[in-house]
C-alpha cells in the first residue's frame, strides 16, 4: 500500500546511550522520540527486536516472536521496586560508543534474575495480574520460555545437540523437563512481560507524538531458535542430526564475491501452504501487535529463494527455487486486512519479483550508496525513483555515508560531485540527506550515523563477517538542537514535515 510523504530515522534501540553498556527502552529512548518530534520526523525504523544469539545479530534470534531482554530498562525495574538503586551501581565503566557484549550480557542478566527473584518474593498484586494476562495472550510464549530454560540447562548448546528425547520433543521428556525447569520457565516469561510492557509504553508515546514505528521481519529464522525446535515440520531438517538439510543465502553479489551463506533452514513451503500459512499469519499478527509498519527483509525470497545443500561452505553452489509468494500474501491479506509492508527488494531482482511487489502495492527500497557506479540508467539515482518507494542514504548493512564517500573510487566521487552540482560546506552526509529528502519517493529513512556525520567506525554491520558488528552507540547529547533544526528545515523544504495546524504538529 502506498504511504504519505514523510521521512524518518533508522536506529536500533541497542544504539541508545546510557550507563548500562547497551541501549535500552528507558529515558534515552523517550529523548530520541522527542528529538524526532523536534526535527519533524514521522517514521522510526528499528532492526528485529528479538533475543539475539551468537554474534549478537538481530537477524539471528532465538525467536521470531519474542523480545530481547537486553533492551529492558533497569531504571524502569527500579521504579517498580524490583531493583534498588545500589543494584544499579553495577552499571558503570562501560564504553560510551560501543557495546561490550561479553561484559554487558552477564551483568544485565544477573540484574534481570534479581528483579524476577524480587518479584516472586515480594507482594506486587497489580503487576502479578498484568503478568498473568500477558501469559494468557501470547501463544508463542510457552514454547519460547521452555526453549530458553532448556538452553540454559544445557549450557547454551544448540537444541539439536540436546538429548534426543527432548530435542525431538517426546511427551514424557517434555513433561519431566517442564517440571524440573518450572521456575526458570516462569523467569523467561517474566522477562518477556517486562520487555513488551516497556516497548508498548514507548510505542504508545511515539504514536501519541505522530511517529510510526517500522519493524523488521527477516524472511528466515535462525536454526538455533524456539521457532525451529517447536515447529520442526515447517523446515527442511536432516532427520538424524536435525541440522538444516537445505540452507538459505544469496548468490555472489555486491556485498560478497562468494555470496552469503546464512545457514538458516529453508521452509517447507508446500506444507505451509497446505496448512493455510498458519505459522506466517501468527508471525505477522504478532509483529503488528507492536509495530505500525513492517519492513520485510529479503523480499525476493518470497518469489524465488536461493537454497544450498548441507555441507557447502559458501553460497556459490546453490539453486533458485520458486516460492508461493502470491498465495502467502493473499492469505495474510485475507486474515489481517491491507498489509502495511515495505519490501526490501535489493540484490538480484527479476521482473517476477517486481510483479509480486507491485501486485500488493508494497513500496520497494532505493539506496543512494548504490546510485553512482553505473551511469544515468542506475535505478537508484533519484531521477529514476518512483513515488511508491522508500529511499535510504544507506542501511544497517552499508558503510556510513562519510565512510562510503571516503572509500569510493575517484571516478565515482567525481560523478557524485557532478550529479549534485558540487558539494556543500556542510559535509557529504548532509548533501546526501538533502538528496534523499528531495526525492519523489513517498518515504525517506536516514540512519542516525549519517545525521551525526560519523565515519566507518560507526558502521552497524559488515555482511559476511561475524565479529565487531551490531555494537555502535551514539554519545549522550549527540543529537543536538542544531541537528534537529537543520533536519527540520530540510524536511519542511521537501514537503515531508507533519502538517502544522493551530501551532502544534498533527
Describe this structure in words.
Keywords: Carbohydrate metabolism, Glycosyltransferase, Transferase. It comes from Acaryochloris marina (strain MBIC 11017). Belongs to the disproportionating enzyme family. Its EC number is 2.4.1.25. GO terms for molecular function: 4-alpha-glucanotransferase activity. By secondary structure, this protein is α/β, with parallel strands linked by helices. It has a domain at 215-286 and 294-345 and 383-397. The protein is 38% helix and 12% strand. The chain has helices at residues 27-38, 74-79, 101-121, 125-136, 141-153, 164-167, 171-180, 182-208, 226-230, 269-274, 278-288, 325-336, 351-359, 401-407, 410-419, 428-437, 448-451, 481-493, and strands at residues 6-10, 43-45, 212-217, 246-250, 260-265, 293-296, 304-309, 318-322, 341-343, 364-367, 389-392, 443-447, 500-501, 504-505. The strands form three sheets. Strands 9-6-3-2-1-12-11-10 form an eight-stranded parallel β-sheet. Strand 7 (304-309) and strand 8 (318-322) form a beta hairpin. Helix 5 crosses helix 8 (182-208). The protein is globular. The two termini are 22 Å apart.
